Amino acid sequence: MTTPIWFHQRPTLDLLNRPMPTMVTHLSIVITAIGDDFLTATMPVDHRTHQPFGILHGGASVALAESLGSMGAYLCVDPNLYNVVGLEINANHIRAVRTGHVVGIARPLHIGKSTQIWEIRITDEADKLVCISRITLAVLAKS
Questions:
Q1: How far is CA 15 from the centre of its chain?
Q2: With contact defined as beta carbons under 8 Å apart, do 118 and 71 qualify?
Q3: pTM reported for the whole predicted model
Q4: Catalytic residues, which ones?
Q5: Each residue of 108-143: pLDDT tens digit?
Q6: Residue range 13-141 in CATH 3.10.129.10
Q7: What radius of gyration do the chain's Cα atoms show?
Q8: Of 120, 109, 110, residue with least CA distance to 65
Q9: CA distance 49 to 69
Q10: What residue segments make up the domains of the chain, in order of their start?
Q11: Neighbours of 116 (CB within 10 A)
Q12: DSSP letter string over the chain?
């Protein structure tokens, strides 16, 4: 068992899934698991996340990846002292998905004082890789 990376005790699914007027809510992204060093979420593949050819839009995959990476990074800092914002994200789209749900799992590659780097793997319902993404985030002191 690894040592938990979260700043406070492990956050609850209820806390992370509270409804807010954000892209996460609009795309029906739901956090489904919180481990000692990872977050997992699902996102439906439907009219909200399709591109014109009826497959999962790459931007929707990136929205899932950035949401997971940003949320994970934020949970690793003292929210009274720091904000976390994205600096760069990349994604390689491997496989098309037409229906169902995709699952994203985010794990940190680096948790530093001024930056964090997270890797997000997105798979389909058959656990086949759909997208691999990496996000770099800045940790900024609140003024």
A1: 15
A2: no
A3: 0.95
A4: 66
A5: 999 999 999 999 999 999 999 999 999 999 999 998
A6: yes
A7: 15
A8: 120
A9: 19
A10: 13-141
A11: 25
A12: -PPP--SSSPPPHHHHT---SSHHHHTT-EEEEE-SS-EEEEEE-STTTB-TTSSB-HHHHHHHHHHHHHHHHHTTS-TTTEEEEEEEEEEEE-----SSEEEEEEEEEEE-SSEEEEEEEEE-TT--EEEEEEEEEEEEE--
Token pair 């795309």: residue: 27
Q: Which two tokens stand for residue 19?
A: 């409804």
Per-residue pLDDT tens digits for 83-106: 999 999 999 999 999 999 999 999
Sheet containing strand 115-123, edge to edge, reads 30-34, 39-44, 101-111, 115-123, 129-141, 82-93
Geometric angle at alpha carbon 56, from 134 and 65, rounded to 5°:
20
What residue has token string 């497959």? 55
